[in-house]
Amino acid sequence: MKYKLNDYNGVIIDPTSFSFEKADLEIAIKGFLLYMETEKKGLAWITLPIARCASVEQFVAHGFIFHSCLPESLTLVRKPQESTYVPFMPTHIVGAGAIVINQHNEILVVRDQGATSFNLPGGHVDPGERIQDSIVREVLEETGVEVSFDAILGFTTRHPYEFGKSNIHFICRLKPLTENINVIDTDEIAEAKWVSVESYLADEKNGLTNREIVSQIADSKGLTIADFQSNSGRFKKQEIFMAVEAKL
Predict the structure, then answer these.
(1) Do 24 and 54 lie in a common domain?
(2) What is the reported pLDDT for 8?
(3) Catalytic residue at 239?
């Protein structure tokens, strides 16, 4: 059974490094746990592909517990002591909404299938996707309008949300590069249009939260993308947003 060490005295097992035959696996697990105890290691981790999930019972019998799962894999963890801290599985579902206002002071809005009110375009941030990329993608899919990212103006949180997780939703300002409407995601979006900001705010059929967001923060400076010289190496951050003021 092969493994690698992480930065926290933990061990990550390579699931391709041993036989999953029941007798062989039993020997491998016992040998691994002896190593963990002798070397006083911390958490033991293994991510099993779905094709190998029949072996979950054996790992559980030796003290492994469920941690998290993806469509094609299940991650188990084993604590050396009951009190050992285990980093929790992802706790938030991340989304983003867009405030896009053109040179005519018109705001870009969408109406979902089956809905009567118009809201800001937006949606979920996909795993591994940057916030700025996700909201540019969502606006294009829902309206056909090409945009460039400008700033994060604020965010909202909500709990409980889907699957017992929390939700964090970033409100972003984007600049329109085109204005022609051409809804791509017709399964979700029934209509997209430009409407004057004044008309949108005055129409009580539109969601109150969206109208309050637009009225209160559309013109704020917000957090813009910052480029730090120190942002490199193994701990490089994919995005840094800061309220950067002009230098004196």
Answers:
(1) yes
(2) 84
(3) no
